[in-house]
Write a structure and sequence with these properties.
Number of strands of chain B: 7
Shape of chain B: elongated
Largest sheet of chain A: 5 strands, parallel
CATH topology of one domain in chain A: Rossmann fold
CATH architecture of the largest domain in chain B: 3-Layer(aba) Sandwich
Radius of gyration of chain A: 31 Å
CATH class of the largest domain in chain B: Alpha Beta
Largest interface: A-B, 136 and 93 residues
Strand content of chain A: 15-25%
Order of helices and strands of chain B: EHEHEHEHHEEHE
Number of strands of chain A: 29
Strand order of the largest sheet of chain B: 2-1-3-4
Distance between the termini of chain B: 69 Å
Strand order of the largest sheet of chain A: 11-18-12-13-14
Helix content of chain B: 25-40%
Radius of gyration of chain B: 24 Å
CATH architecture of one domain in chain A: 3-Layer(aba) Sandwich
Helix content of chain A: 25-40%
Shape of chain A: globular
Distance between the termini of chain A: 82 Å
Number of helices of chain A: 18
Strand content of chain B: 15-25%
Oligomer: heterodimer
């Protein structure tokens, strides 16, 4: 902490929050709001005279509420930076602190939030975790029985800088406990709350047991566990040391804790699975090893930085094995427990790894980004012909498109992120996205639906989420019927209504339109644009006489391999339940109307060719030939 | 489909050990690929991403004057950069290479119906060939790099990252929401496995 404060190249912006992030790799613009401390940092000497005279005491969050702090205070004595802060929610404005500060004149009640915009080339997200709140587990009585505490509360109670200056006491009577039971997997490995293993709780429980045993050798300490997980270097030896010290490990998850109403002693009921016996253990103190969970605002951070989240809610890495510290957004990296529960050695390692990944970008003068951007054909854009249009402008989440009537719309390449939303929005096919052109997509579609299209599910997938979800289904080996055929584009916003219609014109049995959940969209609002567009299409499809169950919209995250497999399985079952003749007849019936609608495509010779060839194979083709 | 006479597409079907080859026969897929319009060459390899596989692609591009490549293997998330770099080394524009994911989105999810997995692989490759036929050479966009970093979160991971970046001479903003840095770590008593103080 002190090293960071002293480092000439590290600038600490404390009491500050990231409000918004714009830009792209090498060129991010980050808006940071610094909250007012009502104390001038440069003039505060950290002497604490102000806090001594402050008459207001409030619970100190740093001490897990076990000790008070003043309305003007620092979280703890070693705070970096050592600058006092007034909690305006509780300050009564008696101004005693101003008098105590005297000639240093560091207190400034008029201070306001400072907003600054910072240019950075790379961002590391290390927002950490928070602890699971065990009050929701009724059988453990946390919050009801005073002597049931969490491991974080124990950390403060046995800390020489903590509220009891390191003397462990029971909250109910201030007496030193003669026995202690530690319960593992509280809120983790529990399908009611979080299925994942919180990773480092076994080690901190063993650490706490050893520390307590060293402090109070006569203390009887029991650890209730499901499995002891000590896989890192030196950890198993640490576990063995605890066993040698006489710490009792009981293999079983407690089913209930009750309290003696007079002594406030606790009775822990569990089945000892090693002995196959139900036991009831009386103890002075119970410590819950609460799971590490994602920060409450993880979804908000995820949206600001266009990150994705894993099933447990932690930020998701680009690739679990090969790019474990990269986020899905180029130039943004992940470190520490924000990416998943981690102990200190792993967090430090990942911090260094993320720094190295960021330095890979920052050590270069320039960076190459994919040229999959959109461009306007000025000969086709109707705006150039003096017609008022500009539909593409609001479709761009980045403000990269300008359109003045009389001139063709213009895409600023450096601002374009390549979602393709404007391409699908343009009713005149005047915009094209490199590497994901209409021609390329229709060419794929045609091949995928060449044989027995009525037996197939054509799945449009976005690169970042639903296609990644399909990959995740693969990595997890979640099997599903081989009826689907996928087309990947960068964003669901790139998906044109006409692609879906073309699929039905080609005779598809089912069409799946899939993309990110709105909060996961890699292009800010791309998914929302797509969601609106395809909601409208649902009605049109029905009007064309196509059964509504043949077109499905699903938002599938990169982590939802199970959902991808389930959606395809369900669609496959629906398809098998439909009458083949009915599908053929619906497609035949809709064909003329779709043909009329797709007429605009035929302005492009390549598209005309793709659409015309093989027309005799299409449902209703025989009528067309007549 | 009418494809320009000039198209010379090479198709590469990866076996990925038994990941793909254990479900479908890559040779059968490659045989089918040879019948597709524009395809002048197709081959398989046990691991297309390995040196022998990549060397074969590079040699074929030169020897058979290939101007488009389709690699039927794993996810773009896995090896698109690999194969783009591979074809670029043989002088081909990397955007004239298209990957088809016959592993994650085929053999790994349809192992229970290998015949239909084979049909799917063939059709996926036909679609990849159709797409690459219309691919155009593209030039990456070069952007400048601002040589400063931001670390969001001043806990142990963030401090570690900021110090390393600082030591590399990179100006680093360390943004912390709370009044002081240190995060959860600062609240801890002695920590394992060394049992020393966390601050």
């Amino acid at each position: 902490m002190v090293d960071a404060a002293r480092h000439p190249k590290v600038e600490i912006l404390s009491y500050s929050e990231v409000e918004r992030v714009d830009g792209y790799i090498g060129n991010f613009l980050v808006g940071v709001a610094q909250k007012p401390r009502y104390v001038i940092a440069d003039q505060c000497t950290g002497c604490g005279d102000c806090a001594r005279v402050c008459p207001i005491e409030i619970p100190n969050a740093f001490e897990m509420g076990l000790a008070p702090r003043k309305a003007i205070d620092v979280p703890h004595g070693q705070a970096v930076p050592l600058v006092y802060t007034i909690d305006m929610d509780h300050c009564i404005q008696c101004f005693k602190c101003v008098t105590a500060c005297g000639h240093r004149d560091a207190i400034d009640f008029s201070q306001e939030a400072q907003y600054s915009e910072l240019d950075v080339g790379a961002i590391i997200v290390a927002t950490g975790f928070e602890s699971f709140d065990p009050t929701v587990i009724p059988e453990y009585g946390y919050g009801v029985y005073p002597n049931v505490i969490t491991a974080m509360e124990l950390e403060r109670l046995d800390n020489s800088a903590g509220p009891t200056v390191g003397r462990l006491v029971r909250p109910s009577d201030g007496r030193e406990p003669a026995s202690m039971a530690i319960i593992q997997c509280v809120g983790s490995r529990d399908k009611r709350y979080n299925e994942y293993c919180s990773g480092f709780c076994c080690m901190y429980a063993i650490k706490n047991a050893i520390l307590m045993k060293q402090m109070i050798p006569s203390m009887e300490i029991s650890i209730f566990y499901m499995d002891i997980r000590t896989p890192s270097k030196g950890y198993e030896e640490f576990y063995n040391q605890a066993r040698k010290m006489g710490i009792r490990f009981i293999h079983g998850r407690p089913s209930q804790i009750t309290q003696d109403p007079v002594t406030h002693n606790l009775f822990v009921e569990a089945e000892d699975q090693e002995l196959g016996q139900v036991l009831e253990l009386e103890t002075d103190l119970v410590v819950l090893s609460a799971a590490a969970i994602p920060r409450a605002d993880a979804a908000d951070v995820s949206t600001k930085l266009t990150l994705s989240r894993s099933p447990g809610g932690f930020f998701m890495e680009y690739h679990p094995k090969l790019r474990p510290v990269d986020s899905p957004t180029d130039g943004i990296f992940l470190a520490g427990a924000a990416q998943g529960p981690k102990d200190i050695p792993a967090s430090v390692s990942q911090g260094s790894a993320a720094a190295a990944r960021a330095a890979r970008v920052l050590s270069s003068d320039t960076w190459e980004i994919e040229p999959i951007i959109a461009s306007v054909d000025p000969d086709v854009c109707v705006s150039a012909k003096g017609i008022k249009c500009g539909l593409c402008v609001p479709a761009c989440p980045y403000g990269a498109i300008s359109c003045v009537t009389g001139e063709a719309a213009h895409v600023t390449s450096a601002k374009c992120h390549g979602c393709g939303g404007c391409v699908a929005e343009c009713p005149h096919s005047a915009i094209s996205q490199h590497h994901f052109t209409d021609v390329q997509i229709v060419a794929q579609l045609r091949e995928l639906l060449r044989d027995n299209p009525e037996e197939k599910i054509l799945a449009f997938m976005c690169h970042w989420c639903s296609s990644a979800g399909a990959d995740m289904a693969g990595t997890s080996h979640f099997e599903y019927p081989a009826d689907s055929r996928g087309i990947r584009v960068m964003c669901s916003a790139r998906m044109d209504q006409d692609f879906v219609l073309e699929a039905f014109r080609r005779g598809a049995g089912m069409v799946l339109l899939s993309g990110c959940h709105p909060q996961d969209c890699h292009y800010i609002t791309g998914q929302q644009v797509a969601a609106k567009r395809f909601d409208r299409l649902q009605d049109q499809i029905q009007r064309l006489g196509i059964s509504p169950e043949r077109f499905r919209i699903e938002w599938i995250s990169a982590a939802e391999g199970e959902k991808y497999a389930r959606v395809i399985t369900e669609m496959s079952e629906t398809l098998k339940g439909l009458d083949r003749e009915q599908i053929l007849s619906e497609n035949r019936g809709a064909r003329d109307a779709i043909e009329r609608r797709l007429r605009r495509w035929k302005a492009s010779p390549q598209m005309a060719e793709l659409m015309a060839v093989g027309a005799d194979e299409l449902p209703g083709g025989e009528e067309l030939d007549r | 489909m009418t494809i320009s006479e000039d198209l010379r597409i090479g198709v590469y079907v990866c076996s990925c050990g038994s990941n793909i080859g254990g479900v479908i026969d890559p040779a059968e897929v490659a045989d089918y690929a040879r019948t597709l319009p524009g395809v002048v060459w197709a081959r398989t390899n046990l691991y297309m991403c390995g040196d022998p596989g990549q060397n074969a692609i590079r040699q074929d591009i030169i020897e058979h004057r290939l101007n488009r490549v389709v690699v039927a293997a794993c996810s773009v998330r896995m090896h698109e950069p690999t194969f783009r770099a591979c074809v670029a080394e043989a002088g081909m524009n990397p955007f004239l290479m298209e990957m088809v994911n016959i592993r994650e989105q085929d053999t790994w999810v349809h192992g229970h119906e290998p015949e239909r997995a084979l049909i799917k692989a063939r059709e996926m490759i036909a679609a990849g060939v159709a797409k690459v036929a219309y691919s155009q050479p593209l030039t990456p966009i070069t952007v400048p790099v601002t040589k400063t970093a931001m670390v969001i979160g001043g806990g142990v991971a963030g401090i570690s990252a900021a110090l390393d970046l600082g030591d590399m001479g990179i100006h680093t903003y360390l943004v912390e929401r709370e009044q002081s840095i240190g995060g959860t770590m600062a609240q801890l008593n002695k920590t394992f496995p060394t049992m020393d103080c966390s601050i």
